[in-house]
Amino acid sequence: MRNYTKNGGSDELNRDFEKAPGKEIPTNDPGRRMKELPNGDRIVARTRSDEGSPTLEVQPKNAGKGNKVRVKIRYK
After folding, report:
1. For residues 37 and 60, what is the distance between their CA atoms, to the nearest angstrom?
2. Strand partners, 56
3. Half-sphere exposure of 53 (CA within 13 A, CB side)
4. According to DSSP H, which parts of 5-73 are helical?
5. 46 C-beta neighbours (distance < 10 Å), count
6. 29: buried, middle or exposed (CB in 10 Å: 19+, 13-18, 0-12)?
């Protein structure tokens, strides 16, 4: 897993999520938004994480198989 930090908080998280291509997938969690990207990966925006910051996570298709690495961006 790769972790990064970016300034801007929830506003920047939402801007980055909106810029990502793909179709939004409905969720039952009001604090979480998800999109499936054209290549089959998923992007998940969470208003809070265990660490406490808004987080954008890229979940590769078939994560855990081969060299697929999850990426998390924490917004401060």
Report:
1. 10
2. 45, 73
3. 17
4. 9-19
5. 18
6. exposed
Q: 15-67, pLDDT tens digit by residue?
A: 999 999 999 999 999 999 999 999 999 999 999 887 889 999 999 987 666 66
Residue type, 22: G
Query: What is the pTM assigned to this prediction?
Result: 0.87
What pLDDT does residue 64 have? 63
- Give every CB contact of residue 60 below 8 A, 6+ residues apart in sequence: 41, 68, 69, 70
Given the structure tokens 């925006």, which residue do they identify?
A: 45
